[in-house]
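Feature request, filed as a ticket because there's no other form

It would be nice if the structure record came with a short human-readable summary line next to the tokens. Right now we just get the raw output. Example of a typical job, pasted below so the devs can see what we mean:
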Amino acid sequence: METGDLMNLLTPEGLRLLDDVTALESSLDIVAHVPRLRKQGFDAGLVAAVVTQARLRHKARGKFGEFADRMLFTQAGLEQATRLSVAAHHASRFARAGFTRVADLGCGIGGDALALASLSLAVHAVDADEVTATLAAFNLAPFESCTVEQSLAENVDLASYNALWFDPARRSAGHNSTGRLTDPSEWSPNLKWVFERAGEKPSGIKLGPGFPLEMIPRELGASPVEAQWIDIGGETVELVLWAGALARAGVGRAALVIAPDSSGGGYHELTAAGESIDPEVGELGAFIYEPHGAVIRARLIGDLARSLDAHALDEHIAYLSADAHTPTPFADAFRVLDTFPVDPKKISPALAEHNIGTLEIKKRGVAIDPAVFRTKLKLRGENAATLLLMRRGVGARSQRVAILAERV
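Raw output as currently delivered:
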């Protein structure tokens, strides 16, 4: 979105039209509505901006729920925005610690600032991009305690704020197609500056979940750092580094699993002072556990295994196994049905015997394309199952194996 398109949209006529189009049932209805808007005499540029925003609002409902229908987005801004359920968790930590004035540096379209402001915290949201800052101002307008500034984070006077939230831009500039920046010195603000500021005031720093473990500092200033990986709906979405009074005593690593809003499962967390000791490798039991990504990223697989009375199946693979099933929010569980060599000719007869027509294929530690492997199997039946293609064992004794299982 360019500045001119945004200015056309931010008119009473543009916003009324946007609300009308957003109310349509689906993205297909929105696209089909374009000729009618053009026939009514609306400017082509305005129609394009309205249609784009309406489609983004529909897409944003997965992150922002009902709030999405009163917000404005760019494609890149929506992709990079914090989900509202995750942002609410971040905001509650600031509120519980007693902070009242927070600077949100790299606010994007305002997802985290919205959650902070909804808890009556005074928030100053900052973004370097003119269009993005304007969208954030629109999205945060209902909150009198929230202000927005277009500026480089490095140019903001932070003296009056008692806590900081950083979400450095980790992708190239742009509102639609952007590329990932792998060098932290190219981020905006750059990571060195972020770490320096976080050593001065209590801070939360949002990073990608794949941020290298060796680059996580043990301390910022005089404060130990807490590293918290967050998983929602089976996807590991981010890593947050907490410093100062926002870091919890005795917690160096944490894996937070947030169930989807529709499930009502809530928040579950596995914490430890540091990396856990890896579990021992053992034989295949009656059940297999696949730890969630946040647990794997946080290197807490050993703690999870011990809580389940489980062991690893391979020294390099994050699958656990046990003879009994223990419900856990930190892993998906499967009941073992059968085992085979990784050979479609050996597997297909068993699939037929179990009447399996729907097969989920997972793989770890083996160079196999599941889509290609599926074409070699005969799937005819009414039942569903999971096929785990993996390695089992230790060192030279490790071997490839296919395990037929069903989700618990």
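Something like this underneath would help us a lot:
The chain has a mean pLDDT of 92.
The chain is about 30% helix and 25% strand.
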